[in-house]
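Entry 14. Ran structure prediction on the chain below.
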Amino acid sequence: TKELHRAVMLVMADRLRYTIERDADLMYHSCDDFIADLQVVQRSLAEAGAKRSAYGPLQDLIWQAQTFGFHMVEMEFRQHSVVHARALEDIREHGLYGERGELQPMTHEVLDTFRALGAIQKRNGIKAARRYIISFTKSAQNVRDVYELNRLAFSHPEDVPVIDVIPLFEQLEDLQNCVNVLEEIVKIPEVQARLKATGNKMEIMLGYSDSSKDAGPTTATLALHSAESRIVAWAAKHDIDLTLFHGRGGAVGRGGGPANRAVLAQPKGSVNCRFKLTEQGEVIFARYGNPVLAIRHLESVAAATLLQSAPSVEKTNTEMTEKYAQMTEVLDNASHERFLDLLNTPDFAPWFSIVTPLTEVGLLPIGSRPAKRGLGAKSLDDLRTIPWVFSWAQARINLAAWYGLGSACEKFGDLDTLREAYEEWPLFSTFIDNIEMSLAKTDERIAKMYLALGDDENLSKKVLDEMKLTTKWVLKIVNDEWPLQHRHVLGQAIRIRSPYVDALSVTQVLALRSLRKKVDKEELSKSQQAGFIYLILCTVSGVAAGLQNTG
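Output, structure tokens:
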């Protein structure tokens, strides 16, 4: 009876146990109720003079509860804008319950997704699942579609879950037009209601992968930087508390590279001590597979997130962006032109499927989505970005990370200015360092073996010439004689791994040659085909592990 605080905590512990057992009479009905009880105990301890206990272990517990709730991990949902539009068309044509014909399976899946979201929210609270991301957001109508489907999925208005719809701008055109779309999005009644309920908080996602495949790595990097600056200015104008969500992958062609340096290179006002990004693929294991490395990585990113908002860092990023605006305009236009020249070459997509293990990669049980949107990569629109980047890495070309930069630098021609930008501008130095790392993982000898599979000297020459040109300019800018000459740890690690990866790459390309060109002009038997495919799939895993940051 004398240990009142302990007695209260024991009652709270019992209520937590009943929460797990789902005892409706005694359980906590939300984590907010639990946090409120903890804060009562904290205030009581502090007023009694026990401040060490109040703001020590008890504060840690409050932070854990605020961070993880009762659900531990928040579920986020994501779907393509076209899927929503097609589902609504289907519903309008056949009726919500198929009164005028059978609804498509995809429509049922979309509606069931909202019902699953609602079920999670009902059991674990709004924070457990409230974010819904729209891939390929092109207009405010895409956001209206999601809110309408959310309503249609439930027969009673009280069952409709609370959701925050997050637009994801991915392709170059969408990044350039994002502010116009956002102006229309904030006029939607449901969005206005959420802004009012959350204190004007809003999340916007930027896609690094499709913008790179769409426009090339140089143009995508500059377009994303520009989009961030314009979104920040737009948010300030509307008094919106902005969080930018970065859809970065592991490979440089998908926005990969050291996360802490990427944070420090962001434009002024785009971080504000918050940095949200995707972690996926082998990046998860590399960064979080070892607890010591995981803590080191998180500390590094957290430090950069805080430091980025320092006036000195913001001043540098803003001034350097303005100083090198003319240079970036030349690099942007020239690299984009060079990249589109490659993509628009006749029969490029089928050629790409032949000179890389794209078809075989699609057979691997990896990735969250199919490698292709259709049955074959007859055009690049059919192809998802991850296999685009991954296949070029397997061919030891890494084209998605650097193509177009060499021609752009050649057109700009001012090496001194490029070197100054590399020294002074965090965005440019991070970009160049990532490309140098990607070039270190290429191998011209092996690349020629893959490119020879396509029997197209014009396309092969374009790729190899641009690789040589980009390597020449990047080495000049960083003042190296060979890639990663002055980055001793990373450079040595890559050089040590390369001979082992080379053996796997040669094995893979020889197996591909046998599949692509027939043995002794005779058709391969099914067992022979299966044998070569199995060999290729084995080498794909090995090459990816050896190269790292491949997807």
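The chain has three domains: 4-68, 76-322, 324-497. Will compare against last week's run tomorrow.
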